[in-house]
Amino acid sequence: MPKWTAEERSTIQSVWQKVNIEQDGQDALTRLLIVHPWTQRFFSNSENVSTPAVIAGNVKVQEHTRRFLGAIGETVKDLDNVKSSLQSLSDINAHELFVDPSNLRDQSAIEKFFAVVVDGLSNSNQN
What is d(CA 48, CA 54) in angstroms, rounded to the nearest whole number? Predict the structure, then answer.
């Protein structure tokens, strides 16, 4: 688990305060479902999640957005206990949605890459 500096904590909390869970979450999940259509399988076969307009009106998508971003919001409040804060969401991913853990590892690799990019770009500014 990372050790957060006071500045990092403040930045994370400040950025999170700007997140509109309803709108930003809906936008992000809509993009995910459209750009990666195989993720539509996480919603029942009877759910139509094929277009942005239909996704926006889908109650299950809205519930998932609130649950997911609500868990992230709770995590932001308790940055020293990220894993325990996300345990219930992790359980849902594993036991109800059957999210393939490799998807999360792929995301981790991308995040690591962007961390290196940020570091590379910021080093020039420090000289």
Answer: 7
| Whole-prediction pTM | 0.76
> How far is the C-alpha of 90 from the C-alpha of 103, rounded, in Å?
13
Q: Which long-range contacts (CB under 8 A, 24 or more apart) does 108-116 make?
A: none
Domain ranges, residue 117: 100-127
Same domain, 73 and 25: yes
pLDDT one-digit tens code per residue, 44-55: 666 677 788 888
Say which residue the tokens 């308790």 belong to. 78
**CATH number of the domain that residue 40 is part of:** 1.10.490.10
- Whether 1 is covered by a domain: the verdict is no
Contact 79, 13 (CB under 8 A): no
Residue with tokens 């942005």: 52
Mean pLDDT of the chain: 85
